[in-house]
Amino acid sequence: MPTPATRLATSKGTFAARQYIFHADSRRIDFKTRADWHENHRLLKAAFPLDIRTTKATYDIQYGHVERPTHFNTSWDYARFEVVAHKWADLSEQGYGVALLNNCKYGHSVKDSCIALTLIKSGIEPNPVADQEEHVFTYAIPVSVFITVGGGLYFLYLLLRNRRP
């Protein structure tokens, strides 16, 4: 049976295809993406609206993790629309959580209960052809599991990294 997929094409010759991978031995959905990107001033994000009530999100950083608010109450909060994180971002409430894992992307954002990952950012400064190339990457969401910050997320990241395309 073929794996479900989504395709995107634009007039500039940009092509992106995302494959959804469901594993029989895992409670995780992988999103394997291949893109031939030829856009300027375009941002491609993957966003997941969730039914989680929390005021903070947790992000993986070098040598640990950091928590950031999920709301924009102040101008400082509004200015932090994206957080640099290495391997995962986690949105959890008491007894339940969802993580967004990735193998090579660093821009994460959470607003209220929507968690997102920046996939391609095609700015033109200082390089006018930045990100205009072929990209292959994978991101994943563990489904219906209680996420604990630290060891559990790192273990899931290692599983994802070992299945790198």
What do you see in this structure?
The structure is a single chain. By secondary structure, the protein is mainly beta. It is 10% helix and 47% strand. The chain is built from two helices and twelve strands. The chain has helices spanning 75-79, 151-162; strands spanning 5-9, 15-22, 28-36, 43-49, 56-61, 64-69, 83-84, 88-93, 96-102, 107-111, 114-121, 134-142. The strands form two sheets. An eight-stranded antiparallel sheet has the order 1-2-3-12-9-8-5-6, with helices on one face. The chain has a four-stranded antiparallel sheet with strand order 4-11-10-7, with no helix packed on it. Strand 10 (107-111) and strand 11 (114-121) form a beta hairpin. The model is unreliable at 144-148 (pLDDT under 50).
Short description:
The chain contains 2 helices and 12 strands. It is mostly beta strands and about 160 residues long. A hairpin with a 5-residue loop joins strand 1 and strand 2 (about 15-20).
List the helices and strands and how they pair.
Layout: E1 5-9, E2 15-22, E3 28-36, E4 43-49, E5 56-61, E6 64-69, H1 75-79, E7 83-84, E8 88-93, E9 96-102, E10 107-111, E11 114-121, E12 134-142, H2 151-162
Antiparallel strand pairs: 1-2, 2-3, 3-12, 4-11, 5-6, 5-8, 7-10, 8-9, 9-12, 10-11
Radius of gyration, CA atoms, in whole angstroms: 16 Å
Quaternary status of these chains? single chain
Order of helices and strands: EEEEEEHEEEEEEH
List low-confidence stretches.
144-148
- Tell me about the biggest sheet? 8 strands, antiparallel
SS summary, helix count = 2
Mean of residue pLDDT values = 81
Strand share of the residues? over 45%
Give the N-terminus to C-terminus distance in angstroms: 20 Å
